[in-house]
Design brief:
Largest sheet: 4 strands, antiparallel
Radius of gyration: 19 Å
Structural class: alpha+beta
Distance between the termini: 60 Å
Number of strands: 4
Strand order of the largest sheet: 2-3-1-4
Length: about 210
């Protein structure tokens, strides 16, 4: 955590609103492009100063729409450095000019509001889960990002700088490949082994069923 004092640590967010026209599916591949080409270099640069981090993906027909977020736990000084690096990223500027990204939003580092590790976990969970979950989800996000990096290395070829349109096409292919990996191997590689860590204990699954009488 570098020189950051434990008392100064807090959760911060950077959010990216993505264009989502009516009567279309969300452009989920844009999330991958943002994670790999914009956020990942900054995460690697500040890896010793960030205690915990995660991505959040969502798309709903509301005020937030399709939004990709980075949430991380650090000092305000580190958060300022990360936000400045993101705001000045050349690819982000190109994606905004093209209309792919509508808006980027950053937490005001003068107004920290979540100091405890559990403060951004779901408030309905047990305290033990709330305190532990940030470590779990960071590992999941690290794996997802690693899949993006590995898949991109196999697809990007020799071109060093792609246009926005070519980048979007490339990351659409990357997303399709990773979705196939999740569909075909996620049950055993992730869900089964997660269950194994908990001693194969049963888990409560809530299901909804449509019925006629």
């Amino acid at each position: 955590m570098g020189q950051a004092s434990q008392e100064a640590l807090s959760w911060w967010y950077a959010r990216f609103r993505i264009k989502w026209p009516e009567n279309t599916d969300p452009s989920w591949h844009v999330d991958l492009l943002i994670a790999h080409r914009i956020i990942a270099p900054v995460l690697y640069l500040h890896s010793t100063d960030i205690s915990l981090w995660r991505f959040h993906r969502r798309a709903a027909r509301d005020d937030e729409g399709h939004q990709f977020s980075l949430t991380f736990y650090s000092s305000p000084g580190t958060a300022d450095q990360i936000f400045n690096a993101l705001k000045t990223d050349k690819l982000l500027k190109r994606l905004k000019r093209s209309g792919t990204i509508l808006k980027d939003i950053y937490h005001d580092t003068a107004k920290p509001s979540a100091f405890k590790i559990e403060d951004t976990s779901d408030g309905t969970w047990a305290p033990e889960i709330r305190k532990s979950w940030p470590f779990f989800i960071m590992g999941v996000c690290q794996m997802w990002l690693s899949l993006i990096v590995q898949t991109a290395e196999g697809m990007s070829g020799k071109e060093k700088s792609l246009s926005v349109q070519k980048s979007l096409v490339l990351y659409q292919r990357i997303n399709e490949t990773i979705q196939t990996l999740w569909r075909d191997q996620g049950c055993h590689s992730m869900l089964h082994h997660l269950n194994a860590i908990f001693g194969y204990g049963p888990v409560l699954v809530r299901e909804a069923h449509l019925r006629r009488f």
